[in-house]
Amino acid sequence: MSEEIKYDWGMRVRATTDLVNDGSYPDRAEDELLVKSGDVGEIVNIGAHVESETTVYLVEFSPQLVVGCLEEEIEPA
Asked: What residues does each domain of the chain span?
């Protein structure tokens, strides 16, 4: 990851936009709403999209739902 990481593991964050299934959840419909804007979760891992070198935050919004979020899709809760 070449960019600076803005948020840390364990940090509580809020979704700044509705997050929909981009195909990452094959058991759910494409474009199905996963997380509503304003929902709160916790960062459980930090990684990167290799090709774009973009930081991806894995946010647990519920025990059954961990979503990869870009920095602009979350904010401190």
From this structure: 12-76
Q: Which two tokens stand for residue 66?
A: 């961990």
**Cβ pair 73, 15 in contact under 8 A:** yes
- The architecture CATH gives domain 12-76: Roll (2.30)
Picking from 38, 48, 41, the residue whose alpha carbon sits closest to that of residue 67 is 41
Q: What is the pLDDT of residues 4-38, one digit of tens each?
A: 899 999 999 999 999 999 999 999 999 999 999 99
Q: How far apart are CA 41 and CA 15, in angstroms?
A: 8
Which pTM does this prediction carry? 0.91
